[in-house]
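Example 3.
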Amino acid sequence: MKKVFAAVLFSGILIVPFSCAQKEKVSEPDQTEKKVVEIGSQATKKLLQTLKSELIEAMKTGPLNAIDVCSKKALTLTDQVAKEIGKGIEIKRTSLRYRNPANAPDKYEREVLEFFQKLEKEKKPFPKYYIQKVSENGKTYYRFYKPLTVKPICLTCHGKVQDMDPKLQTKLMKLYPGDQAVNYEEGDFRGVVRVSIPEESVK
Ligand code: HEC
């Protein structure tokens, strides 16, 4: 397996370019990165575990019920997990081909999604995560991104339209008229979990 690396990119209005920060205080970027990864991984893991157990439970009563869980609970559960982690953390799932417009990427997220999409096109391995430093409206925060790929269980609701249960398809079309999150195949890049961490939390 290829060595896992972290891509650290500073986006938005640059506050401290990486190279300058390194000159001023050699250990700082590493320490900060370590904390960002620690909090980001913890939040991502918790969210994915929560969503997975809800999904498995709901699938027992069929995919139609599971859709309800995903559509009614996904966003609430995401906010709930963020609150449990605390420290001003915000979590979001986003994708270039999203189902719910509420999950559409902003410009920083788009940049990262396109980075992963490019790697996928070039058949290059994904890093485990990606970190961005963003400054907006006088607030600086780190964004930790975890790439998600399509697993067999995802295909029920994100797979080929022609293979989909017609009832499920009808329901999805009703709930999400502009749904772009279909026709995926196993192993495809699906999107990311994005964790925002205020700068103060990793100092
Ligand atoms: C039972 C159907 C179902 C299954 C199975 C399912 N999803 Fe989804 N997925 C949905 C629905 C519905 C939404 C929209 C949720 C919302 O309204 O926020 C969604 C949204 C998402 C999003 C947020 C971005 C967007 O498109 O709105 C991601 C990322 C995602 N799913 C990934 C996955 C992955 C990865 C798997 C497999 C591990 C999976 N899903 C399995 C139904 C499903």
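Residues 6-202 form one domain. Residues 55, 63, 66-67, 70-71, 74-75, 93-95, 98-100, 103, 148, 150-151, 153-154, 156-158, 181, 190-191 surround heme C (CB under 6 Å).
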